[in-house]
Amino acid sequence: MRAPEVDDLLGELQHPLLPTIESLRNELLAVPGVTESVKWNAPNYALTDDFATMNLRRPTAVQLILHTGARPKPDHPEIDVGPLAKWVRRADRNRLVATFTEAPITDNQLAQVRILIARWVAQLR
Asked: Which of 59, 45, 57 is nearest to 113 (CA)?
């Protein structure tokens, strides 16, 4: 369900990649049981714990960060992330980062995002 605080945030946002942000948001909201909120002045998504946050700080890029929430998980499984995302490893806080620099997002990228989110969520459950 769309959170009013995220609607408000994006309504005031002057980001040139807003169509890409909305496409990513729609994909994340399609995850069964997901809740949406604002965290670090950006859209954030959770199941039992936070698992995805957008980084909207740069006007030339939007990053989708898939993470394991507030608690470190050293036994985080390897998943095939395809060409869209990169692993960022910091001690026991592994995360995936997908960076988008154009709007709108392409159909190919959107299909890859859908697969990436599904794989990420599957390993969280």
From this structure: 45
pLDDT for residue 39? 94
Segments of the chain with pLDDT less than 50: none
Q: Are 104 and 19 in contact (CB under 8 A)?
A: yes
pLDDT tens sequence across 14-24: 999 999 999 99
What does CATH list as the number for 4-124?
Answer: 3.30.1460
Helices then strands (H, E): number in the chain?
A: 3, 6
Domains of the chain, by residue range, sit at 4-124
Q: What is the CA radius of gyration of the chain?
A: 14
Segment (H or E) for 63: strand 62-66
pTM of the model: 0.89
Tell me how far apart the terminal alpha carbons of the chain are, to the nearest angstrom: 20
Residue 17: Cβ within 10 Å count: 22
